[in-house]
Amino acid sequence: MTYCVALAVEEGLVFLSDTRTNAGVDHISTSRKMAVFEEPGERVLVLLVAGNLAITQATLQVLTEQRDSAQPSLWNAPSMVEAARIVGEAVREVHRRDAEALKQFNVDFNCSFILGGQIRGQAMRVFQIYAAGNFIETSSVNPYFQIGESKYGKPIIDRVLTPRTPLDEAAKCALISMDSTLRSNLSVGLPLDLLVYERDSLRVTRYVSLDHSNAYFQMLHSTWGERLRQVFGEIPDPLWADDGDVPRHERVELPAVPRPPHEGQRADGVQARPAQTLAQGPQPATPPRNT
């Protein structure tokens, strides 16, 4: 599994991804989930990937091979919408080629992508692209996308991020979101790729790879945990009122249902004794015989 997040604010874009891949608890490795398509002064496009590693790498290969051909590619797409369509078509091409063979081995066609960036003369845009090749775009009410193991890092973004959030604060928000995910899910791991794009710069100016030795990320990790515990301790404990409104259910006494007599018992519940006759008596024992 993996975790990738892209945030869109007025000052720019933030892209963050982990690098862990795994095919079971005894086969854990690393692979970059971020790909940058840059023509300085002309365009900067960032692609984040999640899902089946073979499928996402095959899709990236299709997109990379397009550079040297006359067909539409991420290097010549006239708009960000067209760039998103190109990624979607690359996903469909891999699906047409590999999906049936994967199905025969009970492997789902599982992949998702985030594409964001800016083309000269146009506004910044961010899209989430699904395994079917269709896509959606961020908006003022939903200025971010997550793919992969997203549930642990979502609450902090929902509480903090708005389109007016300063760019550096947005980067900090993304890192805290990632730290929360790292804390709760072993399938997400360091190192991290962080790219912060400044609006209208049309070049990569802020990029860093974060691992265990990064002082800022270690400070953020420890400070966030300490402050959470501090704030938690400062919140008053709940006060308990009268419990008279508890939605109790009353016990209902059901009438007894007579049971049918079992073998050897009379209907009035008295155990029946086997009848004896004078003809009955002790039977002679059979002597052991040696043959």
From TrEMBL:
List the keywords (alphabetical): Hydrolase, Protease, Proteasome
Listed under GO biological process in this entry are:
proteolysis
Annotated region Disordered: the residues are 255-291
According to the UniProt entry, its GO molecular function terms are: peptidase activity
The domain of life for this entry's organism is Bacteria
Q: Which GO terms describe its cellular component?
A: proteasome complex
Name used for this protein in its record: Putative proteasome-type protease
Source organism of this protein record: Paraburkholderia eburnea
